Amino acid sequence: MQRFYCLLSTLCLSFSVFAQHNHNGAATTDSWQVIHAGQLLSVPGETPHNRQSIIVHNDRIVRVDDGYTDPASLDADNVELIDLSQQFVLPGLIDAHDHITAMPGRVKRIWDTTASDSMRALYGAHYAKLTLEAGFTSVRNIGSIGESIYALRDAIRLGLIPGPRLQAAGNYLSVTGGHGDRATGFRWDLFEPLEHDGICDGADDCRKAVRKLIRKGSDWIKVMATGGVNSEAQTGIGQHFTDEELKAIVDTAHSLGRKVAAHAHAAGGVNAALRAGVDSIEHGAFIDDESIRLFRETGTPLVATLSVGDHVLQIANDPDSGMSEGVRVKAREAIPTMMDNVGRAYRAGVTIVFGTDSGEPEHGRNADEFLFLVQIGMTEMDAIKAATVNAAEMMGVADSVGTIEAGKTADIIAVNSSPLNDISTLQHVGFVMQSGRIVKSGAH
Ligand SMILES: [Zn+2]
């Protein structure tokens, strides 16, 4: 009916595109699929099973059957059989630390000063497709300059373009001259407009900044609790926001139903952020015994971002990379400790969540992070859990994604062999289904 009606007017085209998708971009026509999975890891952390069937109705998983269910046994027309009997099947992956509108490059300063908001949105659409095709069906975009990220998130949600389901933080909260103040290090007379509405000093100012970001559409608040490596700020990697400011930020965000992610390197800043009640710590290069105690006491997860460390250190060690001397010094100071400390936190029982900081490293290579996680001593199963169950829990979406169970959204991927034996197989995801729609099918 809709299709016939739309023959009459080009205006109907947009209506038609919209009408064929629900808010997750899933087909709304009645569709049934039976997936035969050679091996199925339905709940990361639990044992995988051989010869399983996943029954999908529209965008939802109806049930998981033991053995191979005959599509004809379903009381429905046009049931599609998806044969993954030679594959290892697992839930869609989640990257909980991504910058999907950012162009990876050796010198961030160029991108920061040349890319318009519109250009970031278009690059973001390109990177979103690469990320989804790599098997990442959900992403937490934890900080982005400008407002393009909200448009990208909403366009994906409407099914207008392919991409991971996004939770988005907009501009970074940063002290004046801090890690998220992108005007730092530039000629002030020329680049003052780079100062954005996430810059705040003092508790009242920070409350207002949080509210402004939420008004624009931020799902998460990203706060630069300490200095950071890859910015021109020459103010170290110690604590930047005061305890009082951190508390004001967290309380304001929570009162408005938003979560807070704290970028933090030095132990003092990590610990202050944990005491203030943030919902995640990002990076954590210099965590100490007190940090580990606080992580365990609060249950706050550590979002390890090991691939970015490796990436930035390589640039720092290349004399011709164009990286400023100040950034090189910070990179050599912070990064080598990150691997050791994330390993230490893991062994002490801290919840580790998967994050890549893509936008520094290349988009679509998010699975490289798995290799680093295994390198620091995580089991393959725990590394997968970090990118599914743990990430979903942290993002407040564990009721819909992170596992393959009845009632959940049909986000399903497959690889040629078991990642529990060789984690690198996740760098070659051959099959991707998101919200019941196949977005990639076939050998990688
Ligand atoms: Zn980041």
Model description:
The chain is of the alpha/beta class and about 450 residues long. The protein has two domains: about 30-90 and about 405-440, Urease, subunit C, domain 1 (Roll); about 95-395, Alpha-Beta Barrel (TIM Barrel), CATH 3.20.20. It has helices at about 1-5, 10-20, 110-115, 115-135, 150-155, 190, 205-215, 245-255, 265-275, 290-300, 305-315, 325-345, 370-375, 380-385, 390-395; strands at about 30-40, 50-55, 60-65, 80-90, 95-100, 135-140, 165-170, 220-225, 260-265, 280-285, 300-305, 350-355, 410-415, 430-435, 435-440. A seven-stranded mixed β-sheet has the order 3-2-1-4-13-14-15, with no helix packed on it. The two termini are about 40 Å apart. The structure holds zinc ion. Zinc ion (ZN) binds near residues 97, 142, 143 and 357.
List keywords for this structure.
444 residues, 2 domains, seven-stranded mixed sheet, 15 helices, 15 strands, binds zinc ion
What proportion of the residues is helical, as a percent range?
A: 25-40%
Per the principal axes of the C-alpha atoms, what is the gross shape?
Answer: globular
Give the class from helix and strand content and strand pairing.
alpha/beta
Can you tell me the CATH superfamily of the largest domain? Answer: Metal-dependent hydrolases
